[in-house]
Amino acid sequence: MKDILIGIDAGTSVIKSVAFSLDGTQLDSASVPNDYQLLDGGGAEQQLPRTWHSTVATLVDLGHKIPDLKRRVAAIAVTGQGDGTWLVDKHGESVRDAMLWLDSRAADIADEITRSTENQRRFQLTGTGLNGCQQSTQLLWLKQHEPEALERAATAMHCKDWLYYNLTGVLAADPSEGVFTFGDFRTRQYSDEVLDVLGLSEYRRLLPDIVEGTEQPGKLSAAASALCGLSEGTPVVLGYVDVVCTALGSGLYAKSGDRGCSIVGSTGMHMRLSRSVDAVELNAEGAGYTMCMPIPGVTAQMQSNMAATLNIDWLLDTVEELLSSLGVQKSRADLLATLDDRVASASPATLLYQPYISTAGERGPFTDSNARAGFIGLNSQHGFADLARSIFEGLSLAARDCYLSMGALPGELVVSGGASRSRQLLTILGACLETNVQTSRRDEAGAAGAAMMAAVAIGQYNNMGDCVGQWVDPLMGEVLTPDAALSERYRSVYPVYAQSHRALRPVWKNFASHRDDGARL
Prior knowledge:
The chain is of the alpha+beta class. It has three domains: about 1-80 and about 160-170 and about 210-250 and about 440-475, Nucleotidyltransferase, domain 5 (2-Layer Sandwich), CATH 3.30.420; about 85-155 and about 175-210, Nucleotidyltransferase, domain 5 (2-Layer Sandwich), CATH 3.30.420.40; about 255-440 and about 485-520, Nucleotidyltransferase, domain 5, CATH 3.30.420. It is about 40% helix and about 20% strand. The protein has helices spanning about 50-65, 70, 105-115, 120-125, 135-145, 145-150, 160-170, 175-180, 190-200, 220-230, 240-250, 310-325, 330-345, 385-405, 425-435, 445-455, 465-470, 485-510; strands at about 5-10, 15-20, 25-35, 35-40, 45, 75-80, 85-90, 100, 155, 185, 190, 220, 235-240, 260-265, 270-275, 290, 300-305, 350-355, 375, 410-415, 435-440. Strands 3-2-1-6-13-12 form a six-stranded mixed beta sheet, with helices on both faces. It has a six-stranded mixed beta sheet with strand order 16-17-15-14-20-21, sandwiched between helices. β10 and β11 form a beta hairpin. α4 (about 120-125) packs antiparallel against α9 and α11 (about 240-250) packs across α16.
């Protein structure tokens, strides 16, 4: 009996293969660390062959953990890290290492196009702001610096597309990334007008066909079957980008109600559901993403903070470095275990923190490659707990900033990602957004979202709504209601937070010529 679905989630630093029963119960998982290189000038690259071989290793390991897996797999689905540029030649071999979403070398190109008069038309079609992590601006960077790579390239893919190709032998893109980068979200197809605005019409040849995975699954090839230990011909679904799959697996798609979904991981993804293309409210500053969902007519509007828990990582890295210099060793787990208590001990909103720690700046709800993090209001009375709390508050005020740019604050919020394990962050986030907060008990939401697409593709469910009712709704956790006094405090301080990042933009721009962000990379 074919009673198992496998969801593959290829992240930047970890690749996972997760097995689910047909009703959504997680059975087991296997993971392998992934690796990438940080280069001078803001580069971040990953080896294509290694990413594929690591994926194979997770599938083989899963086969060791689950009895008779080869016979039992009904379908496989793959999702992965978004943005970036994965180039292959006419033989399907890697042209160069992949440029990742972390790569900031194309930031100036994005800024130049964003300032152009033609960019407004591109934004109206894609519903997506332009930044240096996207494939479009990275192709332009390659055109300037490595034109020979583009001449050798036959296809430009994203991470999950590369893995789908290796699993099936089929070159394809999904409607989420293909459209928000190069297309029209109303038609879910590429737009020649967008390519023209970007100055990439000559590279239209690099774009693979867009395939709807829930309707057109591929088949596991003989070559992939031999490597992975799974049956040749097993249906393989090209999932949507990891952000969409994680939102789907976490609970963004509710049959009714006004629900938002925030994925607070390395980056911060804040999403609202639009049940028709006419309901999409585009950001006035030309920032954010409009992503197709694997549901007819439904899109997710997203504002994405370039850095979320990366800000917390910076704080803990600094503490670890100081302790190490004094001969004191504390694990990251030990430091995290005490962080919530330290945050709870500090008074709210005595500091403002701008959480723009990424060297690529910010992309939501405004786009500024020069944006940088900083504390406002620091004085000699502030200590570590105050700094930690202000970082938590900065992430939450940034989330409020994002949601307000897409309309009103959501009526309810689902939170996933690593930071969802922090009770204090959930409390502060709920107060900042003035809404009830829930998390899901789903451990691997991204892999689950991909597997849900596979469940619909093979006819296990008639539609995604039915699938959500069994895979998602029963796993929703405790509802945290916002503290009224804390909400009032954050409501009053938010205008100052928004004013500060608007006022700092010319300062960031002027300072850009004096700093060296790559000094410690």
